[in-house]
Amino acid sequence: MIAFLQPLWLLGLAAAAIPALLHLRQRQIPPTIVFPTVRYLSETKKEQSKRLKLRNLLLLILRTLIIIMIVLAAARPVATLNVGGVHAPTAMAIVVDNSLSSGVVLEGRRLSELLVQRARTVVDRLAESDHLWLVLADGVPRRMSRIDAGRLLDSVVPLPVRLDLGSAVRAAASAIEDDILPGHEVVVFSDVQASAFSPGPPGNASILLWQPPATVDNRGIDSARAEPAVWRPTGSVIVSVGGSASGPAALQLRVHDQEVARAVAAPGERVGLRAPALAKGWYAAKVTLDPDELRTDDEWNLALRIGEPAAARAGAGAGRFVREGLEVLQGSGRLGAGDVVAIDDRLMSGRGVLVPPADPVLVGAVNRALQARGVPWTFGDQVSGEWQISGDIGPAATVPVTRRYQLKGTGQVLATAGGEPWMVRDRDLVIIASRLEQDWTALPTSAAFVPFLDHLLNDLATSGMSIVGGTPGGTVELPSTAQWVLTRHGPEAAPSDRRFAVPLEPGVYFLTGGAGDTTGALEVNHDARESHLPAADRRSLRSTLGSEVQLLDDQGLDRELFRGAKRADLGGVLILVAAVVSLVELGIATMGGRLESSA
């Protein structure tokens, strides 16, 4: 069987007609005038005419053949050699992408089934002398035999994880780089998502990507969060819809498998699902999207915390505006019998909001108290200017600040002023860099002050870091209040370093303290990048994996496997034949010229 690696060059075969056109042009007979003195030469001319016609025909054939040989050589013809069915020993790494996106249904079957089927054909072509590595959705290259690889491929199913194909291919290339065998190839079976390729240094191995069938449009849920963080007793869930599909779809918010809210949204839109009042406690909720060909990104799990309004207490150093604001919140029912939050300029026990001392002399004592409590923040120098507040401050966004302390330390920053921390949190303590008074900030005289206090007391000072989000198979840092994680298989103790391996199954996993009380939740959901199915083009593949990467269809992959070890490149033979024919043509043309001269 003969195939061409550069088939477009075959268009050059049209040039083979050039010698014939020139030959026909030379055969045009001009008008003949018979002179008496040359009449006796006609007999001699007839004798040489037969020889000249034969020479010209032979030259025509040889020149046409030269052009054909050159064009065919440029098209790089290769012949498949099935004699013995062997190839050079090869170290091969096969990447099979069984990440979340491989679960898309195409023409009645999952894409993952097609990927596995195609990978099996490559494994079956391996010889005993070859070395094999297999890479799945975890991105880890595993050295194994053909038999073990076949068994593992039989068990492959789509997992709700993201595979960074760029990193996986580089890991595969690195695994085979030092192998002693002469051939090194990485073969990739994937949906070739554009969002899955991270840039990095290319390896030395040949990279062959199988070109999957065209995928379908898809929509999925990119994120969902409760607003506010703690409902008292109601709130909303803000949902972002992503994907490549056009047109809206229905969204539902379900609590305890009961639908409590519904909305409609299209990819790229954000909507709010307003829920009715719920009783105090923790709930595992789920946002669902009308199902499409990729089902696993049509759900988002989240934890809802419903609590009573906080009970606030203003210390002597809180300031007049804080005390008046608390009276307004108390009268409107926004403060109740929930968690007690103290606001003062001195460090308190339990939950609280700390503002700078009214007397700068006391700053040193406050800093020492913070250090004794283990808080990683302290008050630095006092500075004056004009800055706007930005961050998690609800209605107080963009309110100007004219005086503040520089907060020194590390940890969670809730809001900034001038790009520096203005409001920070450590566990159950919120620290503000400015006093809530007129000569420090415009907040006390703005309409946003009372809503800001409501958000500060009922959300920021009471929610803490209790809700943690993670993706299946990843790692998260658990809050210090979590001693146990309630998984599907029972309670698991929190590691001493607080780094917890996220379960593979999406859902809500509640966190408990030493006394068995619920202290938070772990929300496990898919990586939103898996919802974006458009494939990478050849240009982007070369920029991330190197210029030698090839995107091949079935026939192309079969041809390029094992570096074409079972193929014979006929280009060199054709060039040699063209050279020999050129020498023959030159000899005939030269001899013919001499005969014409002698005549």
Q: Could you characterize the architecture of this molecule?
A:
By secondary structure, the protein is α/β, with parallel strands linked by helices. The chain folds into 4 domains: 2-81; 90-215 and 533-565, von Willebrand factor, type A domain (Rossmann fold), CATH 3.40.50; 219-307 and 466-529, Sandwich (Immunoglobulin-like), CATH 2.60.40; 311-447, no CATH class. Helices cover 27% and strands 31% of the residues. It is built from 11 helices and 34 strands. It has an 8-stranded mixed sheet. A 6-stranded mixed sheet has the order 7-6-3-8-9-33. Helix 3 packs antiparallel against helix 4 and helix 6 (320-331) packs across helix 8. The radius of gyration is 39 Å and the shape is elongated. The mean pLDDT is 86.
- CATH H-level homologous superfamily name of the largest domain: von Willebrand factor, type A domain
Query: CATH topology of the largest domain, anyone?
Result: Rossmann fold
Name the structural class: alpha/beta
Q: For this structure, what is the CATH class of the largest domain?
A: Alpha Beta
Strand order of the largest sheet: 18-19-20-25-24-23-21-22
Enumerate how many helices there are, as a single number: 11
Percentage of residues in DSSP E strands:
25-35%
Helix content: 25-40%
| Major sheet attributes | 8 strands, mixed
> Ranges with pLDDT <50 over ≥5 residues?
none
Name the average pLDDT: 86
| Domains, number | 4
Distance between the termini: 50 Å
- Find the count of extended strands (DSSP E, 2+ residues): 34
* Gross morphology: elongated
Radius of gyration from the CA trace?
39 Å
What is the CATH architecture descriptor of the largest domain? Answer: 3-Layer(aba) Sandwich
